[in-house]
Amino acid sequence: MNLVIHPETSHQLDVLARQKPHALLITGPHGIGLTSLATQAAEGGSEAITTILPEKNDKIDLEKGTITVERVRSLYDATRTKLPEGRIIVIDYAERMAPAAQNAFLKLLEEPTEGTRFILLTHQPTLLLPTITSRSQRIDARPVTRSQSEALLDALKVTDPTKRAQLLFIAEGLPAALTQYVQDEESFQGRASLVKDARSYVTGGAYEKLLIAKKYKDSRADALTLVEDSLKLLRRAIAEKGDATSLKTLARLEVLHKRISEQGNVRLQLSAAVVVL
User: Fold this and answer.
1) Which DSSP helix (H) or strand (E) runs through 181?
2) β-bridge mates for residue 60, sequence order
């Protein structure tokens, strides 16, 4: 299956693939498919590609792993040897580099080795040192268009109208997420359940909302997704009806999302919001 990339993002990648910058930073929302974008950025060359991923206890761990300073320093020796075909080092989940690891990586950027290029992938570029981002060419990947999302569902043979509508609500514009939810029914059902909880958090009674707050108290990521889905549902309702009450609730949910994002206590924030929603 061909890569699904927004036309503007694809053009930017093609231009930078020809320019071959020493460091390329690719960012975008979760589910956009940063790994696929890195593949296109590296396409057309013969360079050897090495991918660095977060680890925990010497094993790849995408959920809780980190990229240690020792792992970054190991690149010092690796990049001293010049390969005839050149090399590309892809650092996925680049925001998982601890501060010491980021400082160690900065040295690689400040003392470039001929024939070595870096591609940094992250959904959270603000967690990278400004000195790293300023030394990198940056692409902010755009979500793909509605027609591209529809065409992807066609290619994945999703024909049921209800399932298509659910998938587009959950992950329109995000080709990697759409593909995952189509191919992994358990993952899709879990995500669909979160949307159902978001609807109850917006429209349910106080007791029901408190139960939902308790359910999501231990996962900041899931709590943020809950609020994001709630915001999406409200925006859709406002577009259809435009009532003032929904506008007030929308503003309160936006404040809630900001507070949880800023490391506020998840259960306290979700529970406190019940009073004003």
Assistant:
1) helix 175-183
2) 55
AA letter at 204: G
SS3 (DSSP) at 35: helix
Looking up tokens 């390969």, which residue turns up? 83
- DSSP characters over 48-79: EEEEE--EETTEE-TTT-BB-HHHHHHHHHHH
116-122 and 55-56 as β-strands: parallel, antiparallel, unpaired? unpaired
Report pLDDT digits (tens) over 147-164.
Answer: 999 999 999 999 999 999
User: What is the reported pTM?
Assistant: 0.87
Q: How far apart, in Å, are the Cα atoms of 126 and each of 122, 131, 207, 208? A: 9, 11, 37, 35
The residues, ordered by sequence, that sit 6+ positions from 18 with a Cβ below 8 Å of its Cβ are none
What one-character-per-residue DSSP string does 188-202 give? HHHHHHHHHHHHHHH
CA separation for the pair 28, 30 (Å, rounded): 7
Question: What's the average model confidence in pLDDT over 244-252?
Answer: 85
Sheet holding 87-91, edge to edge: 48-52, 87-91, 116-122, 23-27, 137-140
Closest CA to 117 of 125, 107, 108, 126: 108
